[in-house]
Design a protein that fits this description.
With about 475 residues, the protein is α/β, with parallel strands linked by helices. The strands form six sheets. A seven-stranded mixed beta sheet has the order 14-15-16-13-12-18-19, sandwiched between helices. Helix 3 packs across helix 4, helix 9 packs across helix 10 and helix 13 packs across helix 14. The relative contact order is 0.13.
Length: about 475
């Protein structure tokens, strides 16, 4: 294993160079063991430096120059994959396949983004005047990216890379719990790839740092991924400041298992959807809606899968389920389970667990208002309910305030009919709810986001550039004044 990250980041933040932040330093903690992995600097409002000057020069570079930086960054993710995946395993509590997915996705995002500088960015417009009329896309300027802990690298890179490729500077505020694998690593990769100094700043910290990267006067676009509650506050602040804000928020996603669906593969899909990365994914399957004709068999097989999945430290054991990120989140999951059973839910498999770990859990007999059914849990919990008609299934799906992702398993024609009845940003037929690709516009409806998208050329150009109208005449126009 190489030592690509080195030690110059210890007790530092990145503002173009590694420097002491004005906030207190803090320990980087491994959730599985509570071991300290390092110590980072924390940013405060005083550390949100002016990035506009660097951005103006960057925007003047040729498309080929910017594309080359993105391609080199993509190659560096692959070159240092083992070391960087090791940090995702230990710092985020991820199993190795999930960590490998994050690294390969970061690589793919860079390569996808490397095509953006040469992508067409404008229109030739008609005009009633004797002139040429154009609409062109120009860099937004400075983009603030606020990223969460769960898929920390992907959820930072999907905004950082395209924003840089399109000529912007970026202020990245990673979640402080995962600021090495999704902050230090990103800074190191882009510095090594030749990104000019000052264009990317990595500013982990608490609420004051988050408020600062939103309020900084040079920032024109905010890209936020996180909880709906936090997203509301970011959106309110951005609205007050007249800044564009892309919000990708929470979900309580449904997996609908249609009559006639093959139960074995369906429970495999449902298990992955609910328990991948301990259920700490915005697209996690939070509700299993199973047709009454196969409901009992589905619950039985899903519970068997729950009991068979090994739980433990992914850095030292071959496990399917790792730790919950921290004590606060573990308490939240366990509190939901306690309230769910008090409200009448039946615990079929799993339960609250011990220490850093919550095992895969199956619940049945939930009322629509049961907290395990109605709320986003962000833990490895699979609540299961039955339905009898397609219309009833659609009503149950739409009853949630969220609208991020939906999986439908079974007959394709019936699934297509159901798809037309639901409000959601993503629909996966004969797949579970967790899916993403670097070239896909990603976003949700209702309380899962504000409808903005990033991912893919069209969505990224829309997200991280501004439209500018340009007219041109062969000579100075005549005016009556």
């Amino acid at each position: 294993m190489t030592d690509f990250l080195g030690t110059d980041w210890h007790e530092k933040i990145f503002t173009g160079t590694w420097t002491a932040g004005s906030g207190e330093t803090y320990d980087v903690i491994e959730p599985a063991t509570a071991e300290t992995l390092g110590r980072l600097g924390a940013a405060s409002a005083d550390d949100v430096t002016r990035a506009a000057a660097a951005q103006k020069e960057w925007a003047k570079t040729t498309p080929a120059e910017r594309a080359a930086v993105l391609r080199r960054a993509g190659a560096l993710w692959a070159e240092h994959a083992d070391e960087l995946a090791g940090w995702i395993i230990r710092e985020a509590g991820s199993i190795p396949p999930k960590a490998a997915l994050e690294i390969s996705s970061a690589e793919a995002i860079c390569y996808e983004s490397s095509a953006l500088p040469s992508h067409p960015k404008g229109q030739v417009l008609t005009s009633n005047e004797p002139r040429w009329s154009f609409a062109r896309r120009v860099p937004a300027g400075v983009v603030s990216v606020i990223a969460p802990f769960n898929f920390p690298l992907i959820l930072a890179m999907r905004s950082v890379a395209p924003a840089l490729a399109l000529g912007n500077a970026v202020l990245l505020k990673p979640d402080p719990r995962t600021a090495v694998c999704a902050g230090v690593a990103i800074a190191k990769v882009f510095a090594e790839a030749g990104l000019p100094e000052g264009l990317l700043q990595v500013l982990p910290g608490g609420l004051d740092a988050g408020e600062a990267v939103v309020a900084a006067p040079e920032v024109s676009v905010i890209s936020f991924t996180g909880s709906t509650a936090a997203g509301r506050k970011v959106g309110e602040a951005a609205g007050r400041l007249l800044k564009r804000c892309h919000l990708e928020l929470g979900g309580n996603n449904a997996l609908v298992v249609l009559p006639g669906a093959e139960v074995g593969p369906a429970t495999s899909a449902g298990a992955f959807g609910s328990w991948m990365h301990q259920g700490q994914i915005c697209m996690t399957t939070g509700r299993h809606l199973v047709h009454e004709s196969i409901y009992d068999e589905y619950v039985e097989q899903l519970a068997e899968r729950a009991r068979s999945l090994p739980v433990g430290d992914p850095a030292t054991e071959e496990v399917a389920i790792g730790p919950i990120i921290d004590e606060k989140q573990r308490t939240h999951v366990r509190d939901i389970l306690e309230k769910a059973t008090a409200d009448g839910a039946t615990l079929v498999a799993g339960g609250p667990g011990e220490g850093a770990f919550v095992p895969p859990t199956v619940l049945t007999d939930l009322s629509p208002s049961n907290p395990a059914w109605a709320q986003e849990i962000f833990g490895p919990v699979a609540p299961v309910a039955r339905f009898s008609t397609l219309e009833e299934a659609a009503e149950m799906v739409n009853a949630s305030e969220y609208g991020l992702s939906l999986g439908i398993l079974g007959d394709v024609g019936m699934a297509m009919d159901l798809a037309d009845l639901v409000d959601t940003g993503k629909i996966h037929i004969n797949e579970q709810t967790v899916s993403d690709e670097a070239n896909v516009p990603f976003g949700g409806m209702k309380d899962s986001g504000n409808g903005s998208r990033f991912g893919g050329a069209e969505a990224n150009i829309e997200a991280f550039t501004e439209t500018q109208w340009v007219t041109m005449r062969s000579s100075i126009a005549p005016y009556p004044f």
